[in-house]
Automatic annotation (TrEMBL), chains A, B:
GO molecular function terms listed in the Swiss-Prot or TrEMBL record: ATP binding; glucokinase activity
Compositional bias (Basic residues): 329-345
NCBIfam families associated with the record: ROK_glcA_fam
Enzyme class, spelled out: transferase
GO terms of biological process kind: glycolytic process
Organism of provenance: Aeromicrobium terrae
Name of this protein: Glucokinase
The organism's place on the tree of life at top rank: Bacteria
Pfam family, one: ROK
Length: 345, 345
């Protein structure tokens, strides 16, 4: 039997990453381009072009798209994307028409969560809570081997839970959202302030980016912390502390076995996760009378989104083939590798 | 075929309520007693006594127990109860030994959530988030027709999500827990303060309880608000506001179709739910691009816990009978009324 391959896309605010993914989550070929963020039609063109390129060498059976935005519960429409021009964009059907392949669209964090559950940090767990730390905080939930998307597809937006009444303003229009305290933007904000005001760490960060304070991001802060800078270490610990308290809140509500931390900020590793675990254990309700969730770093890195999107699309297309009247064989629900990400409705 | 009856218990910090419940969630007979809260053996005796009494007139097939405490994921052991003397109490087996009936133990809020999903406010929904407002805040989640209990059985403890950093101290050992701001204790606290300091509302509350400030509870505050007292109305609106903001956070994470508000404080009806809906719509992330959860009052009142516990026990016992080798007929998964609350692991 030929390998079952699917094409995965991760469509972010600045970049489109794509890859051909096999049944074991391996990426066999890659493509990438910048996101034409102001023009939905141009995004569609980019997806089509990459698909045709990768199809010429690989027999792909489905396309999965993880998109930075709100995706409806049927996996067809991007309702809204803060960084892209999509508003009620019927992406699934548009891509399917162009490519003549079955297409699945999901939120990018859901795609990453699925990948970590299938092939990564939560491989042997029934459930997973994923928290992706980038400029903001995204999230995903897998329950009993199924992606949990909520009633209308928008579950997992952990970054917009309020943690400080009348706190820092958030792009979403609220104040005090968790992502204002526990994401990469905190490091970027502090780094730029330090660079502008000329502290010792600030000068170090400026040197690292060639002199423009606005070029400083969390990445340089993490590098400084890894180099032993105490102030940078303290900043990461502070973000980790907010992270741990927030995870304790999620654990009060969801009681997961494992919480996987992904996204670029998780590259800081123990400098972030150590303080997060400490704050979690300090603030988890019922501590001492319960088994606590493990807090672990994601395994799959930045390709998790495209791997998860491809895998969900492959499994969903397979399930549809099996369920269709023309299918010759009905395969019984198999073990883990055969589990298919049913949409719950 | 004889009616399929089960016995439901709701074991709280002060009262034990029990009832014989039929397949449609009707309570056919009732018993109640005070909870012997310091002695686990005495609780067991009370359960046995009530069971024998109710069995003499009704052919019950199973016992369901909703307990105010942390119940493990297998439904056998009360890990910890803040108001009772249970610590790792193997309640299921103890009751089963005494009564020779199949027994299911769950958290009391989970039992109420199941009842509201089966027979109450969320009858036609695939999912449910229940928030019970009493002295504290309890909660339950039903996903795709199954109670969601989390990895270790402790999901739904919404009241202990932190909403104010370094906020009011909570009995759980943390500070700033949601239940310190959005539960009945806020009304009780304010009512007692007003009673002690002799404000107009305070005098009114004192009159209602016969002169002892410590006898004032949220119930009198709600009565005053219903009578048109502006200060009491404002207190309920404030609790409703905190409630709505917290629900917006839960909706960011879980995106439920419906949020059911139960518990004694929900008796305030629109005086509480109006402000809650307003705060929810004001602070829900992505508002304007999504379908918002409906926030509705629970339908089943204080008997929800015993009804839900009985129903879960009845369905679980039936499923076990059907799955056992001696069962003559295997019944296919049926419609809603036949759904059984599978434990997810």
């Amino acid at each position: 039997m030929p390998e079952r391959l699917a094409l995965g896309f991760d469509i972010g605010g600045t970049k489109i990453a794509a890859g051909v993914v096999d049944e074991d989550g391996r990426v066999l070929a890659r493509r990438g381009t910048e996101t034409p963020s102001t023009d939905p039609m141009a995004v569609l063109d980019a997806i089509s072009t990459i698909t045709e390129e990768l199809r010429s060498d690989h027999h792909v059976r489905a396309i999965g798209i993880g998109a930075a935005g709100f995706v409806d519960a049927t996996g067809s429409t991007v309702l809204f994307s803060p960084h892209l021009a999509w508003r009620n964009e019927p992406l699934r059907d548009a891509v399917a028409r162009r490519t003549r392949l079955p297409v699945l669209v999901d939120n990018d964090a859901n795609a990453s969560g699925w990948a970590e559950w299938r092939f990564g940090a939560a491989q042997n767990e029934p459930d997973l809570v994923l928290i992706t730390l980038g400029t903001g905080i995204g999230g995903a939930v897998v329950i009993d081997g199924q992606p949990y998307r909520g009633r209308y597809g928008l579950a997992g937006e952990f970054g917009h839970m309020q943690v400080v009444p009348d706190g820092l303003p958030c792009e979403c229009g609220n104040r005090g959202c968790w992502e204002q305290y526990a994401s990469g933007r905190v490091l970027t904000r502090r780094g730029r302030e330090a660079a502008a005001s000329g502290t010792e760490l600030g000068r170090r960060l400026l040197d690292a980016v060639g002199g423009d304070p606005e070029a400083v991001t969390g990445r340089q802060v993490t590098a400084a912390a890894e180099g032993g800078d105490e102030e940078a270490v303290a900043w990461l610990a502070d973000v980790g502390d907010w992270l741990g308290v927030g995870i304790a809140g999620l654990a009060a509500a969801l009681d997961p076995g494992v919480v996987v931390i992904g996204g670029g900020v998780s590259d800081a590793g123990e400098l972030l996760l150590g303080p997060a675990r400490e704050a979690f254990s300090r603030t988890l309700t019922g501590r001492g009378y319960r088994t606590e969730a493990r807090i672990v770093r994601a395994h799959l890195g930045p390709e998790a989104g495209l791997v998860g999107a491809a895998d969900m699309a492959r499994l969903t297309a397979r399930r549809r083939r099996q369920a269709s009247p023309g299918a010759r064989v009905r395969v019984r629900a198999a073990g883990r590798s055969g589990r298919s990400p049913r949409r719950r409705r």
